[in-house]
Amino acid sequence: MDGEAAGAANMAIDxxxxxxxxxxxxxxxxxxYAWAPPCLSLGRSQHLSEVDLAACGRAGIDIVRxxxxxxAILHTDELTYSVALLQTDPRTEGGIxxxxxxxxxxxxxxxRRLGVPAAQxxxxxxxxxxxxxxxxxxxxxxxxxxxxxxLVGSAQWRAxxxxxxxxxxxxxxxxxxxxxxxxxxxxxxxxxxxRLLQKAITLEEAIGHAVSYERVAExxxxxFGQALNVNLVPGQLTPEELTRAARLRxxxxxxxxxxxxx
Length: 262
Description:
Layout: E1 4-5, H1 7-23, E2 29-35, E3 39-42, H2 53-59, E4 62-65, E5 73-75, E6 78-86, H3 96-113, E7 118-120, E8 144-146, E9 149-159, E10 162-170, H4 186-199, H5 203-207, H6 213-228, H7 239-253, H8 256-259
Parallel strand pairs: 1-2, 3-4
Antiparallel strand pairs: 2-6, 3-5, 6-10, 7-8, 8-9, 9-10
């Protein structure tokens, strides 16, 4: 379980762990972390024009581009998980959607330990015209919902024989804040904010009381262990992972050529 770090560092660590797992120098890894300062992350192929850069600057919000796909997420007041496995691992065989389904079982089991009425989303029928820049606007196949509203936003990346899946679990706060960081007109902003709050939910709202980061992480560890039939043991980033992450942070995730490439 890691503490808080800036967006570029968090994404660099996730990639460094994935590379180490794929190379066989690290075991399959489940990681939890938080973000400081708050950060808006973009999907790998999302256009930078979908972000209000000036608004992010005024609010002190960092911007980073994830190695995974999807749309924008505002990372604050949340727990983020990441899982790195081999593509040959039985828990990730069958492609991205099937991998989502299996790994989501771990999230479900952990959330139910906290008393969350969690479920896996059914197949989305959302038309392309309805897609917005906001990740939490609609759940994808097998993402986690509570009371029919999206609770966990996840994305997956497969590279070099490895699989990285990471996702955001908002613990508390105003999920509508992200709308202020996107280039909507005033009228459209209110509409999108209201729409988002109808379709997404925080953990605190789902169960009616606040839960600490540590308690949520403990529940998810137990849930992944139960659902995936694995014995999880605490660990630390290896010196090799730390060295590789430091290089990726400087050469990729802080680099405008990566962040501003679309």
